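S1.2 Input.
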Amino acid sequence: MDAMRVSALRDRLAGTGWLEAVGGFAGSLRRSVERRGAGELLLVGTEAYEPWHLAAHLEEEAAWSAVPRLAPTLLRHRPSADAPAHLAHGLRRLAEAGRGATVLVVAPAAAGATLLERVQDARRHGATVLALDGAASAAPGGGGNPGDLGRLAHERLAVGTAAEEPFDLTQHLVSAAAGRPAGRRSALDRLAELAGRLTSAPPLSRW
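S1.3 Output.
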């Protein structure tokens, strides 16, 4: 991703409501991890898609914004026996998640039955569930047919044809917005800042 692409995106999305939808979802994520009694942030994808890139950006934002609970624990469907500690957490952690935990589900395609069952367990035990999914017919911030994941989530951001942008780019925007307190800068300003950071900051080596 380069600065020219992000700048073009900024111009195209101005006035569409999409950046505001992203900012609202990111604000919900930040409030969930900052609320009294908040626990860990559990980040999980589908069996075919692991959101390790979002995990890295949230960890960066946690350090830059001094909100340590934005740094997630990445859960994997089949962690290998020799995986490093930060990549060795399985879906069992969802069943163990209790009140105060925040579960962020990232699903560019349909979430499988096993994942949905574990997310339902987490919600039943009091966790807050947020969903970032790739529903093809959804409008910014929701709409379309929410399906099972939409039913389980307390809040959902559906990345559909209305956004006309790749799923990974939305993850960049969500992580960047989550690292900034509400009202401090506009969504367009945050996007401009993101352009500079994406082209200058080195990736986190542990991911």
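S1.4 Remarks. The chain has one domain: 3-200.
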